[in-house]
Amino acid sequence: MGSSSHQKGRMRTKKPLGIQLFECVRRSPISFRSCQALVLVLTFLSYASYHATRKTTSIVKSVLDPKTNLGILHWPSHLYLQNLKGAENNTTLSSGWAPFNAKDGTALLGEIDLAFLGVYAIGMFFAGHLGDRVDLRILLTIGMIGTGLFTAAFGAGYWFNIHSFYYFLGMQMMAGLFQSSGWPSVVAVVGNWFGKSKRGLIMGIWNAHTSVGNISGSLIAAAMLKYGWSWSFAVPGIMIALVGLTVFLFLPVSPDVIGIQEDLHLKDSEKTDMDTPLLERRSEAKDKAVGFIEAWRIPGVAPFALCLFFCKLVAYTFLYWLPFYISHTAIGGQYLSDSSAGVLSTLFDVGGVVGGILAGHISDHLDARALTAASFTFSAIPALFFYRIYGSVSLTWNIALMFITGMLVNGPYALITTAVSADLGTHSSLNGNSRALATVTAIIDGTGSIGAAVGPLLTGYISSRSWSAVFTMLMASALVAGLLLTRLVVAEVVAKMESRRAPAPAASDLPVSTATMDEP
């Protein structure tokens, strides 16, 4: 009895202040369904704000480094004859901002991206390990407020007339460190509240926060350029800090933290797989946090993590360089302004929203995560080729091809970072351990983030010689990403064929995707 009272006291101290106030005003406890809705909204806004601050750099790049760094080696050359006189009138050709307006400015911007994403990738491994051991609400709040502070500090370089490369490098590294706490935290929180059925579709829709953040970040940064590029960093920085404060006040990280038992809210007939918690708490022994090496050994983690390395290499190259590429490429014989290029680039993310939902729905329907992800990555190869060849023919062609490319590039990226991570974080080999999801998520997305750092860095160097070479690199990366899933795809197809041959499914039969991931 005393132990139970002590446990309730602990839960009360951990309950967010905003929820305590809400319950005090209503004079009744908050419902389980209300908490689920609150978790979805807050985690969606949280990671959307992370991506909004991350997208800012790509919008401001062409202001910091206004040189026309196109690389005139195209395939075929007669389709890409540049109007050099029109380039002289391009609104991006201003004085720029030292040190990025120097001859090696494009390479310096690539190094800034590498610094951010490199620290982000390294921090991700530690953040996931930490996330399974501390209050996720506090970890997420600190990450968001810290991200806002250092994002705004980068923009403050304009106000204080700072031209030191190492100042901007340091601000981006610190921002990357604080951002690394975001993804493992939000996936773990959502995993605590939602069930397994239709996970691909649900998380595909929820994962639209990535594209929504990219779109809103692009629009805000582009709109703020007329007031000075510093405001393109300051406004998203303030916004994420405010969302972080809201998270601190209202985010319930799990049902037990606020004293809600989901089983009390469900009839026996409703206790289906849909309402089964992702993280089943079976015993104290099984609630021990999973080690880093142990998480790597979970079947399926390594191939999906390596696949995500190349998927994010492609996706983040577009994230950081697409507005720059658009503003420095003649579309229908005309160059777009920095702000117009930023707005146009959001269509890539609109395609990403559709791709994430579509990939999740297809993977649920087929019960084959690897097959779905591989199909999208292989299909992205011709999409990338056609966008490079025909994207500059006209604005209409550019919009259509950009949308399709965004759908095929972001589809597997969204699927692996959400549904696949949740599947593997609750893998049968863990025997119900409830404290592996953040670690597994961090391993998969952390490995992917290394690719996200490599892609923009290589693009900074390669694009100064030829954008065609950049697209060749992206197509090769998509090919490797698909090939890395070959063994899992074959296993899924074989399991699916065997299940169809069987006269009647046995009670012990496993779904295809589960059987695939259970292979040693």
Tell me what you see in this structure.
GO terms for molecular function: transmembrane transporter activity. This is Major facilitator superfamily (MFS) profile domain-containing protein. Its main location: membrane. Belongs to the major facilitator superfamily. Organophosphate:Pi antiporter (OPA) (TC 2.A.1.4) family. It contains 20 helices and no strands. It is mostly helical and 520 residues long. It has 2 domains: 11-70 and 101-259, MFS general substrate transporter like domains (Growth Hormone, Chain: A), CATH 1.20.1250; 291-500, MFS general substrate transporter like domains (Growth Hormone, Chain: A), CATH 1.20.1250.20. Helix 5 (105-131) runs parallel beside helix 7 and helix 6 (136-159) runs antiparallel to helix 8. The two termini are 45 Å apart.
List the topology elements.
Elements lengths: L1 H13 L2 H10 L5 H33 L19 H5 L16 H27 L4 H24 L5 H15 L2 H12 L5 H8 L1 H17 L4 H22 L41 H5 L4 H27 L10 H29 L2 H22 L4 H31 L11 H26 L4 H17 L2 H16 L10 H6 L3
Helix pairs in contact: 3-6, 3-8, 3-10, 3-11, 3-13, 3-14, 5-7, 5-8, 5-17, 6-7, 6-8, 6-11, 8-17, 9-14, 9-16, 10-11, 10-14, 13-14, 13-16, 13-17, 13-18, 14-15, 14-16, 15-16, 15-18, 15-19, 16-17, 17-18
Q: How many strands in all?
A: 0
Within CATH, the superfamily of the largest domain carries the name MFS general substrate transporter like domains
Contiguous runs where pLDDT drops below 50 for at least 5 residues = 1-13, 68-93, 263-286, 507-520
Helix content: over 70%
